[in-house]
Each structure stands twice: as C-alpha cells, then as structure tokens.
Specification:
This protein is mostly helical and 322 residues long. It has ten helices and two strands. A two-stranded antiparallel ribbon has the order 1-2. A hairpin with a 4-residue loop joins strand 1 and strand 2. The protein starts with 7 loop residues before the first helix and ends with a helix.
Length: 322
C-alpha cells in the first residue's frame, strides 16, 4: 500500500549510509574530504538504493529482486557511468592479467570485484541498516512526489559523476560503443530477471543460528577476493556461489526471519572495522599519520553504525516481540 506522503527520515538516512558503506568503509579517504564525498555521492548511491528498495517493496518480491537490481546497478555504474570496467588507467588498477578478456577488453576480476562490492555495500547492507531504523521496515517510503524527487536527483548525480570521473580519475577515457552496449545488455537482462522473479514455495528446512550467519557474512566478504590474480577469481566464484546457493535455500524456509537477513548483513558491515587498515589509500602520497587518522575514523564510524543499529533492532524487538 502506497503511503500518503514520503517518509523522508529513512530515505535521507539511506542516502548517507549508502555512500559511506560504498566508499568510506574501505578507508583511505582523507578525513577532511569524508563529508564532501558523502554529500556528492549520496544522491547517486543512496538514490539508487532507495529506488531499488521501493521497486522491491512495492511489488512484494523481496530480497531476490533487491539483489538482482543491485547487480544491475553495479554493472551500470562500473560499465557505463564511471566506466572503470573498461578503463586501463582508472585509479590504480591494471587490467593486464590472466583474466583479462580481449574483444570486450574487460577484466573478469574487476567485474566481480566492482559489481559484488556494489551489490553488498552500496545497496544491500545500507538497506538493511536503514530498515532497522524505520518504523515501516517492509513498506514503501516514497509517495509519488518523493519518487520523482529521488529519481531526478539520481539521474542528475549520475550525469555529474560520469563527467567528473572522466575528467579526474578517467583521464578523458571513453568506453567503445560495443563495450557500452554489452554493459547495457547485462543491465537489461538483470533488470528483466529481477522484475519477473516469483516467490518460491516455502520449505521447512533448518536454518543456521544468527551468530553463524553474521560470521559467514564477515568472512565471505572479507576473503572473497584475497589477491589480484586468476586464482583469486576462482576463490571469489566459489565463495559467491556457495553464499548464493546457501542463503537462497535457507531463505525459503519458514524458519527464516528478518533477524537472519539482518545478522547476515552485519557481517559485511563489520568489514569496515578491519579493511581500512589493510587496504591501500586512494592517494599514494598521503602521509602515514593522515592515513592512520582517516582509517581510524572510517573504522570507528562503521563500528558505531553497526553497534547503534544492533542496539536499535534489539530494543525494537524487545518492545514489540510480535
């Protein structure tokens, strides 16, 4: 049922959480630039997360649709918007390794890395966190006017990001027409599958305890790409396949609850407490002291977000056990 008016509090919260988890949770961004990055990327990452959630919640299709649309967003973002999948000079990435595909001229390694990152920390985890704070966790947040506002903000932010990345990080790079067509084809396929997804019959399969799911989420996302080589791609494929099949099977059980999805998402969220201290900084010339400060702020913020969200959920469940 469509709400009479937009609930801006959870929408704005998601627009802050999404860019933070997508970019800042890796560390390496100078402390003085963090607020600017959140404000700049909020309408794009957050706008996409809000719109994806609205489509899934309004249609009643749930998390399979959210995840498929998140993958479509990841392919669109990396293949069309910032074109990082095709640009050999993008940031510090080198596409000349064993999993580089000629013709399309794309790295399977970075395809998996970028799209998986968008699915998990740009869209899914932020949605779980924002819903934990909302009184309408399973219902729509946007009215008709709100949908237009968020949609327009997303489009404008995406256009600005496209040209901004091209000028700064992209060094003027422009993907070839066939590369953009392939990326758009993948996006269209993922969207079509997401919108045609139907609920599967419920089973009575036993599901893992929530603490085990949190551990699974943490370990799987931390180690799914242990190094930049072909062997790591095989590890990633195995990890992603195992998680998708396992969670897909468990989530069909009548014993699967919102708590299981919540704790599964908290695992990747907690990666933000560890990863900043092991990932390379965005700026290679940053001082060790500045890098430590940025990483510490990023890690402390992720820990605070997880702690407060967990407290909020437990408190809400205690007050409304039904």
């Amino acid at each position: 049922m469509q709400p009479p008016s937009t609930r801006w509090a959870p929408v704005l919260a998601l627009m802050v959480i999404a860019p933070w988890m997508a970019e800042m949770s890796w560390g390496g961004i100078p402390f003085t630039e963090m607020l600017w990055v959140v404000l700049f990327l909020g309408p794009m990452y957050g706008g996409a997360a809000v719109l994806i959630r609205e489509v899934a919640r309004r249609s009643g299709r749930g998390w399979p649709t959210i995840l498929l649309l998140a993958a479509a967003f990841g392919a669109f973002q990396a293949g069309v918007v910032d074109q990082s999948l095709f640009n050999p000079d993008y940031a510090r990435y080198d596409f000349q390794h064993p999993v580089h595909i000629d013709g399309v001229d794309v790295s399977l390694y970075y395809l998996v890395a970028f799209v998986t990152g968008h699915v998990v920390v740009s869209i899914s985890v932020p949605i779980v966190i924002a819903e934990a704070w909302s009184r309408r966790s399973a219902g729509p947040w946007l009215g008709r006017r709100g949908l237009w506002i968020v949609g327009v903000l997303y489009v404008l932010a995406t256009i600005v990001n496209h040209f901004g990345v091209k000028d700064e990080d992209g060094h003027g790079f422009q993907a070839a027409p066939h590369q953009v067509v392939v990326a758009l084809g993948v996006v269209a396929l993922l969207v079509a599958v997401a919108l045609s997804w139907q609920r599967r019959p419920t089973t009575h399969l036993a599901v893992p305890p929530i603490w085990l799911l949190a551990g699974l989420g943490f370990i799987a996302f931390l180690f799914y790409l242990p190094a930049e080589n072909g062997a790591s791609l095989l590890v990633a494929a195995a990890v992603i396949t195992a998680v998708v099949l396992g969670v897909g099977r468990w989530s069909r059980s009548s014993r699967w609850t919102a708590a299981h999805a919540f704790w599964l998402a908290m695992g990747p969220a907690l990666n933000g407490v560890v990863v900043p201290f092991v990932a390379a900084p965005y700026d290679d010339e940053v001082s060790a002291r500045a890098e430590l400060l940025a990483d510490s702020v990023a890690a402390a913020t992720c820990l605070l977000i997880v702690a407060l969200t967990t407290y909020r959920r437990l408190r809400t469940r205690a007050m409304h056990p039904a």
